[in-house]
């Protein structure tokens, strides 16, 4: 997003969290669901999103459009949030869609933070993301927007069974309903990052050849905290093919200290 859109989103998020902070959990969760549904609708309706994101149009005209389209279909809090979003300045229409989707996710993560389940939600999202990576056919089926939404949600619920918290399930349902052409595993990883960011942490995705002890995990956290000068949340995946060592990814930076990588480098040097 460009600066104007980032500023609009930051202001909308602050107002949203202030609003739902005084509401019941059910009311606040409804806001998250409403906003996700609206983002999906606007993604499919380019003419409408252009009108709502047109800062040259009178604010009252945009508010009237929001009320005509969504009044009576979403909750009062959701409608108020949409009105504020529509009267903000967005750099491009698609940013408005992405902003509403972001608000939907943050509303649900805010609730998880409030009931002290955010750590569990983050871990459950990560584990589901690993399932998608390990089973690309499943990821393809869940993210196939040409297939009926009801069937994809049924498949998701079959995979999840009763093994996740309701907020995790809600977030994953939103992702499956409207992936908007993005790989589902990338959306889920983005949700993991957002959950960590709410606790002012960055996520380090670690691939190891075998399980790490608690002491090893803590030493790794301490090292990464010093390197990146911020708190780090570890997400560990196992891959025996690494033979030993670790592959660590924080944002776009990858540290490959695996035995497999060192062997590959040695073979390359010997072949010269």
- Taking all Cα atoms into account, the compactness measure Rg is 21 Å
Give the DSSP E fraction (strand runs of 2 or more residues).
5-15%
Question: Which parts are unreliable, with pLDDT below 50 for 5 consecutive residues or more?
Answer: none
What is the domain tally? 3
Order of strands across the biggest sheet? 2-1-3-4
Main structural class: alpha+beta
Task: Work out the oligomeric state of the chains in this entry.
Answer: single chain
Helix content: 55-70%
The pLDDT mean sits at 90
Shape by Cα distribution: elongated
SSE ordering: HHHHHHHHHHHEHEEEH
- Tell me the span between the first and last alpha carbons: 45 Å
Give the number of DSSP strands.
Answer: 4
Give the count of helical stretches.
13
Major sheet summary line: 4 strands, mixed
How would you describe the overall organization of this protein?
This protein has three domains: 1-115; 116-199; 201-270, no CATH class. The mean pLDDT is 90. It is α+β, with helices and mostly antiparallel strands and 272 residues long. The protein contains 13 helices and four strands. The N and C termini lie far apart (45 Å).
């Amino acid at each position: 997003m460009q600066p104007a859109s980032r500023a609009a989103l930051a202001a909308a998020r602050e107002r949203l969290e202030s609003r739902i902070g005084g509401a019941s959990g059910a009311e606040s969760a409804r806001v998250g669901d409403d906003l996700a549904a609206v983002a999906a609708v606007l993604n499919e309706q380019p003419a409408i999103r252009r009108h709502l994101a047109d800062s040259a149009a009178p604010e009252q005209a945009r508010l009237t459009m929001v009320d005509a389209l969504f009044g009576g279909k979403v909750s009062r809090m959701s409608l108020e949030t949409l009105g504020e979003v529509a009267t903000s300045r967005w750099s491009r229409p698609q940013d408005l869609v992405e902003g509403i989707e972001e608000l939907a996710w943050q509303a649900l993560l805010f609730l998880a933070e409030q009931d002290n389940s955010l750590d569990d939600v983050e871990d459950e999202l990560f584990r589901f993301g690993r399932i998608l990576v390990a089973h690309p056919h499943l990821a393809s089926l869940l993210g196939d927007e040409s297939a009926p939404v009801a069937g994809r949600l049924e498949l998701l619920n079959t995979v999840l069974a009763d093994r996740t918290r309701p907020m995790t399930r809600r977030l994953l349902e939103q992702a499956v309903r409207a992936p908007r052409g993005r790989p589902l595993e990338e959306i889920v990883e983005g949700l993991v990052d957002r959950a960590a960011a709410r606790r002012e942490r960055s996520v380090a995705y670690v691939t190891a050849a075998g399980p790490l002890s608690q002491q090893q995990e803590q030493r790794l956290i301490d090292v990464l905290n010093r390197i990146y000068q911020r708190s780090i949340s570890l997400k560990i995946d196992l891959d025996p093919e690494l033979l030993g060592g670790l592959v660590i990814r924080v944002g776009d930076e990858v540290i490959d200290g695996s035995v497999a990588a060192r062997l590959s480098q040695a073979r390359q040097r010997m072949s010269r």
